[in-house]
Amino acid sequence: MSSLPEAFLANSHVSAFSHTSQPAGWQRELAQAIRSGEELLRRLGLNPADLQTQQLLETAGIQLADPETLRRFPVLVPENFLARMTPGNLRDPLLRQVLPLAHESHSVEGFVPDAVGDLEARRTAGVLQKYAGRVLLIASSACAIHCRYCFRRDYPYAEEPRRLQDWQPALDEIAGDSSITEVIFSGGDPLMLNDARLQTLCCAIDQIPHVERIRFHTRMPIVLPSRVTTELIAMLTGFRAQPIMVVHANHGNEIAGDCVHALRTLVRSGIPVLNQAVLLAGVNDNLDALEALCRRLINLGVMPYYLHQLDRVSGTAHFEANRELGLQLMQQLAARLPGYAVPRFVQEIPGQPNKTAL
Length: 358
Ligand SMILES: *Cc1c(COP(=O)(O)O)cnc(C)c1O
Ligand code: SF4
Prior knowledge:
- This protein has helices at residues 6-10, 25-31, 37-43, 51-59, 67-72, 79-82, 93-98, 168-175, 195-206, 220-223, 230-236, 258-268, 287-298, 323-334, and strands at residues 122-124, 127-131, 134-140, 182-187, 213-217, 242-248, 273-278, 303-308, 344-347, 356-357.
- The chain is an alpha/beta fold.
- The protein has 2 domains: 6-21 and 110-357, TIM Barrel (Alpha-Beta Barrel), CATH 3.20.20; 33-105, no CATH class.
- It has a 10-stranded mixed sheet.
- It is globular, with a radius of gyration of 20 Å.
- The protein binds pyridoxal-5'-phosphate and iron/sulfur cluster.
- Pyridoxal-5'-phosphate is lined by residues 121, 128, 130-131, 134, 136, 184, 354-355.
């Protein structure tokens, strides 16, 4: 039986680990992240208060999101990610992923809060299951960046376990079902948990004999590379179960700067690292962008895994690329790259036994 150490349970009246010592480097960086659209533009040399910038924004059809939208899903961009954008370029593919637009409050037919059927798939608190053999844990509600196209932007995170002892029912559920051979740490971003919490939760899962693999779905090695520390690698490579990491980059420009080092460190530690991307209008819906992304990934030993057709979540319609265009791009991509460098173009259709190949 897997259970959390007594010490954590004994402290149940305090938020576990709230009193841990020093914040780590990545936590300090996060505290300094950019938290408004205006600030984001200013940092790229585009002051929304000056007339010339206003004209530029108007020509580009850019109007920032309203306060209500921003209250529900605020801006969050680490400096390290900002550093990979080109100053003055309103079409920058990294900026486009994080700049909150007025379009987000437009309701568009077919775009709904839970497009992928997450709520239907909730098996117990913190645990989603859609596919045979693997369950997904909503291990953290937080992320190191807020991607404006996020498919879980409306997820009811408040109902999921926070304190460590709240995970006990989930652990019991997994321990009681020997058909579960893989546990996927997701969220939010599971690496937003500090090392102590992550270690505790992972070790509890690792003690369940039928769990063969522990997978992490995380964008942090891409957007906040300082999260990939020696301590983290030691933890991930110390489990009985096989660790697998699936990172999330959408454009080749993301695979630059410190991110290159973080990915190389992960790959060289022996952890299989895969990438999933989302096909996004105005970001990567062209052949050159997709080719550059895949090449930069494989040159670091990171295998392109999935290219997702956008999930039709409310507020994200302006990111949707035509499916036919996606299919055409995939064909052209396959003609340019080695077979292993071509991701699978998939869509998540609720009720299907796996992600559907397009
Ligand atoms: C996408 C997803 C998975 C992982 O699917 P794979 O095809 O194994 O990568 C697992 N569980 C849920 C709920 C998912 O949405
Ligand atoms: S990192 Fe993932 S879960 Fe977090 S905002 Fe981006 S897409 Fe959503």
